[in-house]
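pipeline/complex-builder :: batch 7 item 3
reading input block
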Amino acid sequence: MEDGVGIEVHAAAKTFGTVQAVRPVDLTVAPGEVVTLLGPSGCGKTTLLRLVAGLERETEGTITIDGRSPAEARRSKRIGFVPQAPALLPWRTVAENVSLLQRLRPGCNPAGQPSVGELVDRVGLTDFAAAYPHQLSGGMQQRVALARAFALGAPYLLMDEPFAALDEITRADMRHLLADLCQPLHAAVLFVTHSIAEAVYLSDRVVVLSPRPGRVVGSVEIELARPRVPEIEDDPAFFAHERELRRLLHDGAGR
Amino acid sequence: MTDRVRNSSAVWVTTGAVGLIAFWEAFVRVRDVRKFVLLPPSEIVRTFFETPAYYLENMWVTAARLVISLVISLVLAVAVGAALAAWRPLEDASQPMLVLILVTPWVAYISSIQLWVGRGTPTILFLVTFVTAPAFVYATVSGMRGADPAARELFRSVDASTWEVLWHLRLPAALPSLFTAARFNLGLGLAAAYFAEGAALSRNGLGEAGKRAVAFNQGDVLWTTILCTAILGIAAQLAVQLTERWMLRWHASQR
């Protein structure tokens, strides 16, 4: 078993019945790296993320996380998963939801878990720690979902379009928050989105997928300074990256 | 619900109750209804205070039997329902038995139960448990199946055990439907307990007191017993409602 190798996807493909969702894909995510899968709706990026999370089995190829299978990585709590919907438990308060994953199979908790109270503070919900999910806005609920994933202290976070259902202003706030959270915790993130701005702002590298069946069209290193601050979105380099990604998406779609 | 709306609702409930009692009293007096057919409320109160201990003791006995049976029924049904929710073939296989229990009038087979289990309290407990269990089983299965799929996936992402999924997710998700079933079962269980007590299965309890009143042609005692049974039912409904308000404070039905 190897530690700190990262996520390695070798020629992984997925077919559902007769439908090929993902063509053989190669992908790596180094420890601490933020990689975004960018592609149009239905291109298989969520399927690829679910393969890495061990929630689906690949029909071809291999996937390892620090040298272990995704199933083993799940068992040893090396993966923090953020689904599209916040998936908060309505009978638990904000603080109780944030601590949920820590409380499940506590014997397997990774070392150095952040404190729940600190995370609730960092996502700006101190005054809502005792509130129930129905008392929160959509953006606040998604902040709880982020804090819950970070609370696990897992070295790899897999995020499946977590901001897709939010309005544009809240969405921008959320990507700024996520970048702030990632910075000191050094977790590697595999992020799925179809928002080009989100991909550029958050990532060290963006992997562009073609329409279904998904294949990698290209990979773009995002050479913007860290820590990322909202002002960077007005930087010409930011626009240049957006333009490049847009071109790759168009090429991938055969336009 | 705001305090103002709640207060206004309480006023209307009280007005309705007072109106009903006044109408009942006037109807019996004006129409000169025979006391075995219907006794006016004032006569019921007078009869009750002639021998209050007699009625209170019988109410206590019936209440204890009802509560014990419902608790046994709930525990068994949740265990069975959890197994059925986890495995669809088992649920399908159990349908004929559950439907048969639900649709067959228990008054028809009470003599057979008496022959099998014997006389007295165990038979009453058995009957009430038996007739109330299917509603609890259905509520458990539908509630557990309705648990948020995204939350189920989140639990899978850390390889949560079956027990953890049951305790932290499926059981709380089943609570709203279990409370609905509990309210239905209170009426059913009270009727079954009253009937079983009266069917010579007991030497005490409201059902037995009612049967004896009929045998001795005591209309006033019969109607006092009937009202005591109704008060017991109302008290049980209130207790369930209060528990529900507290336990489901997060649920849309309680807002």
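note: Chain B touches chain A at residues 148, 150-151, 153-161, 164, 168-169, 172, 175, 249-252, 255 (CB under 8 Å).
queue -> next item
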